[in-house]
Amino acid sequence: MDVESLISRRSHAVEISGIRKVFELARALKNPINLSIGQPHFDTPEPIKKAAEAAIAGGRNAYTLTQGAPELRERLLADVKKKYNHPDRDVIVTSGTSGGLMLAILAVLNPGDEVVTPDPYFVMYPNMVLLADAKLVTVDTFPTKFRLDPDRVIAACTPPTKIILLCSPANPTGCLIEPDAMKAVAEFAAKRGILLISDEIYSAFCYDGPARSPAEWNENVLVVEGFGKTYSMTGWRLGYAHGPARLVEEMKKLQQSTFICAPSMAQFGGLAALDYDMSGYIADYKRKRDTLVAGLKGLYEFTQPGGAFYLFPKAPWGTGTEFVTEAIANNLLIIPSTTFSQQDTHFRISYAATDDTLAKGIEVLRKIARR
């Protein structure tokens, strides 16, 4: 059998993540300085692990309801309604934040529809849209130093536009969308009947002010959040989404036919996580950001990130790919901007690392800043 002939055009079109390619490179290096991984470097806090262990020991290992274990879903729904007071807002627990995004995209998009999102963007957005046989339209934010210009977003929206997809704090830049810009896009989406999806996976990691959401100005915004980044439980695959009840109902139907439900024991760990104070970890990451910014200031051009745990500098020479190749030759793993963008000018640093690893990375970056 010619298996190759069986592979769909859709699967052929999906590209392997550039991040995974760097992970493969890491295998060839001896003790690499790894500033490429987009996940917290600390372990899941003990009370969260113990709650999941107790769920396993207590026999809570079967499927939960598709929309989530009642204990977790009801707690999330109460928190969401307290925050927004939207009468029609509902919650679904998903298999990771990416699972929530995929369900929403499949529930809304028809072939030929368009999704508008800023460039740079999270690495999975293009492939998610591709799987729905739709088109991703990007809005260049490089000229504005990654500040979102609502006029550019509005100009990119055409009759086929079905979704505007925003992420704040953003991966890979760490930048936050300013409230005025967020409000303008939210109000435009409401007026035009375009679904605004707000990817808020990094909302806990905001260092210079509170996280804001476009749901403050538009009741029909779908917000996608998760536990993985905040509580360092990325492998648990636990996320949730909240938005208009009619849309959440469709996402529930699709989850029944795909993921079925989020992992049961992870959901009970997530319930415990909601009462765990992460402020010490967040403060430590703010310190790491400041350390990295101070270490590279004057040698690299970058916008200071207000959140997440990434810095997105411009390569001081060559293309982003050429610069990253040199960094890898010096045992440092970072990610070129082509993974997140149509431009090959920048690179992403993750400072979700130990202080020692971060210090070694800064040393290498200072060394190779100039040829």
What does this structure look like?
The protein has 371 residues and is α/β, with parallel strands linked by helices. The protein has two domains: 3-44 and 278-367, Alpha-Beta Complex (Aspartate Aminotransferase, domain 1); 61-273, Type I PLP-dependent aspartate aminotransferase-like (Major domain) (Aspartate Aminotransferase, domain 2, 3-Layer(aba) Sandwich), CATH 3.40.640.10. The chain has helices at 9-13, 18-26, 46-57, 70-84, 96-108, 125-131, 150-156, 179-192, 245-256, 264-273, 279-296, 320-329, 355-367; strands at 33-34, 89-94, 114-119, 135-140, 161-167, 195-199, 222-226, 239-244, 310-311, 332-333, 335-336, 347-350. Helix 8 (179-192) links the parallel strand 5 (161-167) and strand 6 (195-199). The protein is globular, with a radius of gyration of 21 Å.
Low-confidence stretches: none
Count of alpha/pi helices? 13
Number of domains: 2
The end-to-end span amounts to: 52 Å
Keywords:
14% strand; Aspartate Aminotransferase, domain 1; Aspartate Aminotransferase, domain 2; alpha/beta; 13 helices; globular; seven-stranded mixed β-sheet; three-stranded antiparallel β-sheet; 2 domains; 371 residues
List the helices and strands and how they pair.
Blueprint: H1 9-13, H2 18-26, E1 33-34, H3 46-57, H4 70-84, E2 89-94, H5 96-108, E3 114-119, H6 125-131, E4 135-140, H7 150-156, E5 161-167, H8 179-192, E6 195-199, E7 222-226, E8 239-244, H9 245-256, H10 264-273, H11 279-296, E9 310-311, H12 320-329, E10 332-333, E11 335-336, E12 347-350, H13 355-367
Parallel strand pairs: 1-10, 3-4, 3-5, 5-6, 6-7
Antiparallel strand pairs: 2-8, 7-8, 9-12, 11-12
Helix pairs in contact: 3-10, 5-9, 7-8, 11-13
